[in-house]
Give the backbone structure.
Amino acid sequence: MFCSNSGKNTKPLIVNILSIGSTAFIKRLGTYCASKAAAHLLTQSIKQDLEEKGIKVIGVYPGYVNTEMSQDVTHVEKASPESVATSICQGIEAGDQIYLHQNHIFAGHKI
Ligand SMILES: NC(=O)c1ccc[n+]([C@@H]2O[C@H](COP(=O)([O-])OP(=O)(O)OC[C@H]3O[C@@H](n4cnc5c(N)ncnc54)[C@H](OP(=O)(O)O)[C@@H]3O)[C@@H](O)[C@H]2O)c1
């Protein structure tokens, strides 16, 4: 249903929030990294399928972000949610390319 309606939108875009743990193992977060790795591959897969139909797909790969989820993490620097949101907007505007900003990676291409 999503794909059949997508042609009515001029610039359809899917942004998947993944994690640096999608591509690198984080100690004591094995199951989280495994699920994020699967989501990374799903993102790359739908990117191949949907971009043929004009739907852009961008994966966002943040490091630690200062949210409720990471409240127990105190030993590392955490990005602010606001900076992540800004970086996501910049990544979208930058288009279909790998984009590095602080500890965030935006991947339009395979990484
Ligand atoms: N924080 C980090 O360090 C970090 C780093 C890398 C990637 N990420 C990713 O960023 C994304 C957002 O995380 P966050 O840091 O913003 O975490 P967060 O502040 O804890 O927020 C998690 C959000 O997910 C919702 N949620 C949780 N379980 C759900 C469920 N079963 N069904 C529907 N909604 C559910 C929560 O809704 P309620 O408020 O209603 O419970 C909340 O809005 C996640 O995919 C996370 O893996 C986070």
Q: What stands out?
A: The two ends are 29 Å apart (CA to CA). The longest helix spans residues 30-51. The pocket of NAP is lined by residues 17, 19, 62, 64-65, 67-70 (CB under 6 Å). Helices lie at 2-6, 30-51, 81-94.
